[in-house]
Amino acid sequence: xxxxxxxxIVNNLNDTATLTATSEALPIDYTxxxxxxxxxxxxxxxxxxxxxxxxxxxxxxxxxxxxxxLSPSAAVQLEIFQDEDPAYNSGQVPTAELIPPPVLxxxxxxxxxxxxxxxxxxxxxxxxxxVVGNNFRITI
Length: 140
Known about the structure:
Blueprint: E1 18-21, E2 49-66, E3 75-82, E4 85-89, E5 93-94, E6 123-139
């Protein structure tokens, strides 16, 4: 049995990275803990940049922001570097995918509905071909 669209994050590289953030109302290190009570919060709604450095070179092919409180109109950008050289740049990616009019069930789905609306917690995933890097930057 094959599942061609199934993706799993087996190795969470965020947990092993040294992290910094533009602002920290709550510490960015909290993203490296699995407890629900531990979250990272910025001090305001300005653009936030999270940087991470791994102790060595790592392979990456996906990233997920899980349990975020970003609006569907927000955007994130993921960049992975090998030293200073860019290995991957996602560009601006919306945090939720709007249901387009041909699929939107008029009179049933609310205007501006997203595919994320029906899942229990918000998440944004970015999948890309495997790259090698030793640091990353997430811009929200």
